[in-house]
Structure formats: C-alpha cells, structure tokens
Write a structure and sequence with these properties.
This protein has about 550 residues and is mostly helical. It contains 23 helices and 6 strands.
Length: about 550
Amino acid sequence: MRNKSLLVAQREYMENLRTKTFWIGIFFMPVIIVLAIAVPIWLERTKDARKYAVIDHTDWLAQAVEERATLPDVKKVLRMAIENTVHQEESAADLPKVLREFAAGAAAFLEAQAGEDTPEATLAVLDEDLGRKFMEASAELISGLSDPENKAFDLSKLPGGDQALKEIIVLREALRDWWRSLPPEEAKQYGEQLNKSRYVRVDVDTSGSDVSDVRDRLNKLVAEEKLFAYFEIGPDPLAGNEGFRYVSNNLTDDELREWFERHATEEVRERRLAEENIPEEVAEHIQAPIRFDKKKLSETGEEEEVATEDTLRQWAPVVLVYILWIAIFSITQMLLTNTIEEKSNRILEVLLSSVSPLQLMTGKIAGIALTGLTMVVSWVISFLLLVNFVPKLMNEKMPFDLNVIARDPGLLTSFIVYFLLGYLFFAALLVGIGSVCNSIKEANNLMMPVTVVLMLPLLSMIPIAKDPNGELAVFLSYVPPFTPFVMMNRAAGPPTTTEYVVTTILLLVSISVVFWAAAKVFRIGILMTGKPPTPMEILRWIRAPVGLVPTRKEP
C-alpha cells in the first residue's frame, strides 16, 4: 500500500509542477512582498503636496504655525545628517556645506558624551535623554523658536558643550536661510514625511481687500482644485474658537487640518499660559508629559530594554497567520479542484483499477502537500532575499529589521509544522467533498461551512495577538479546526509547553478521525455520478462497515 501511495503522490507532485497554477503560486508571494514594500514608498513619493492658504485675522498665528511645523522637520534633517556623518556614508558628502559643518560638530560632541569611539555608541546617545534634549535645543535655535539668550538646554557644563553651542549659534542663520529657500519638491530627499514636502502654504494678498472677496477667491481656487483647502483664523484665538473655519472639498483626508490644528493649539496654549503670568519653567512643568520606559523580562526574569525588533517579533505571528491561511486555503482548493477534474474526466476510474481508494486518497493528499510545501519554502526564501535587496534597490532604509523573523527558528518552525497539520486536516475534508461532487459549482455549495470555519481565525487575529494567553486564545487553541492558526498567532506569547503538547495531540487525533471519515466517503463517492448525496447519505456512508456500500434511496 505504501509504495502505491508514494507512486500516486509522485504523480500528483510532478503533474502540479508542470501546471501554470503552481508557478503562479510560486511567484505570487514574492510579488506581494515587493508590492507591500515598494508601493507605499512609491505612493508617498508621488503624492502631491497639499497646497493651502490662510486668512489670518491675528497677523501672528499662521506664522507661528509655520515655525512650529519647521521644528520636527529640522530635527529629522539634523539627525539624518549626523547619522550619515558618523557612519561616514557617501551621501554625507552630498549634503549642503552648512549642514555638513553642523553634523561634524554635533558628531564630535556626541562622541565625547558616549566615551567610546564607535558609531553605535555615538548614535546611542541620540536616543538617551541627553541626546533628545540636544536635538530639541538645536532644532529650536535653527527653526527660530528659541534664541541663544533663552536656551532650552544648557550645554556649557558638558564635555565639548561650549564648542557645540557656539557652532550651532554660528551656523543657525545659515541653516535657517538654507531651509527657508529649500523647494518642497527637493525637501523629499531629506525625508519622506517632512512637513515641508507635504504641506505648502500659498500666500494670499489680503491687503485692502474685503474678507468676503478673499473668501470668494479662495473658494474658487478650492473648487478648481488649485488649492486643497484654506483656513480662516479668528481675531482672538486666546479667547476661543470664534471665527475659525476650514474649507475643503476633500472630506476623507483630514491630515492637513489635524496638522494645522495641532501646531496652532500648541502656540495658543503657550500664549494663554504667558497671559496668566505663569513662569515658563512652571508652564513646562505643568505640561510635561509622563513617559514610561518600555521594559520586558528576559528568560532569566531580568528587565531589558524593548527594541523595535521586539515589537516586530510580537506582531510577526499575525502576518504569518495570514500567510498560513493563504497557503492552506490555496493548496486545499488545489486539491479539491484536482479531485473534481479527475473525477469528471474519468481519470480516477483508471487509477482505481491499479490502487485502492485509500491508497489513491492518501497519495493525492501527500502529493499536493509536497506541492504546497515547495511553495511555502520558496516563499520563505523569497522573503529573506527581498527584504534585504528591495530597500537597497529603492535606496530606502527599512524602519526595522525584518530579518529578526528569520533569526527566530521558533517562528519558522511553527509555521512549517502548523502548515502541514492544518493542511492535512482541511485536505481530508476537501478531498471528501471533492469525491462526492461532479462540478466546482456543487463543491462550492458544500464548501460554505468549511469557508465559515476558515474565516474565524482571520477575524480573531488581532484580538488574539493583543492577548495571546487570554481566555479566547486558549479556548480556540483546543478547537482542532482553529488550532494551527491560533497557536501560530500565539507564538509570541508564547503558549506553555503543556498547551503545545496537548493541542498538538488533539489536532493529530482529529486529523486521524477526519482521515478515517474522508476515506469512507471517498471510497463510495469517487465512483458515484449523478445527483450529489445529501448530508444524511454521507453520514450513512461514514457509519457503514468497510466493504458495504449503502444503497441510495430513490426520490
């Protein structure tokens, strides 16, 4: 029996290798990975800057918003320049002279604070409290929100601090002039998410004009899509929101309005505090946010810093569950389609002259399993290659290291194991369904309950990922149709060894039961033509002793 089943499996595998469907499946996942990485980057690059205008009845708030919006941009550009300088990348030589000078001085200062002459140690200071304050103070001086006499951060008591401060003060006007003259389209080369490249203010001449005339002109520009939107700032922002308006025909994209509101709120809040004669240091103390340093426990129970890769690994099982779902669903559908086609073409009748129904069913499931495993392994290899080469080809840096998934053998091992177990469970169901159907249309009707079962793991992905050891996750782990998906989703939890053992044993027992039932249905249904059997007839087939074929009741 074993040899004949292996021959059927080999036939199925080689037949699938010769089909277009197999190769489409092989290239499907790499294409998805490339699109997932490249399309968002491309769309961001091609997105038009949002042009807006402002009718400012205060003569100060619109300008203040622009200055505040400059602050995060300047911080991003300064950090990029420092990182390139520390790593001695070729792109550092292409930076404007004034930016190179600032980056060189800042790198020397940060290196003195690090105490180690390594790029990693130097850049690590940027993420510490000292580095954050240094970047904030530098950006405030350059953007115009601060001045040397009213520094947000005193560098004088730190090694190299006096020299660093002098260099910032000397270069601030040149840096400010360079930034102001930088065209929005060129700003994208310094970062995709810069305010300067995303939002462009269009100057509107309001001198000697009636406000209603200005509104009419702006309304016309908005209607002609020459302006994305315009703001009207009321006469007394410190008193309230009276007279504040936002006009746009785009009702789905609120990024511009939220961006402008956020910066305007920060400016008005500061002025209200100053109006109440609250000292600056008291106001800062009142508004200072509470920040919790994220920690995690190591395997030894010690506290460790939470890196971006740790968060990525926590959510990686969600992506793997989705890929697992696609793999199992697509491969079992291939088995279903293959069974129905060979039944309708009478190929199975020829095969059954040489092998038993059980040998044929086992061989078909094993052959399609090898096909699916080949596809999954090719997807994994493609993923590892693409996440390393696509960003380089597009001259982009990934915000996190996706190789952390590949370096975790537990995730990939779980994926392969649960793919095989999940496939075997659903393959037995679908090969039984395929054996009693004469067409894909008939199979679709019987597939509906299986599809509903398969949808639940997708619907519960996010809740389980957020609470991998919660009651819902634990309960669904012990329901065999859901076990492969839920246990994969809980991999970052992770489940206890006992849960792994018990759920796996339960799943294996369930696979054996489903195989036994599918084999009894397959041996009768594979040679049956005409009207498909009812669920009650299928149940009688399963209950009938081996060798006995129940007769069909005539209507």
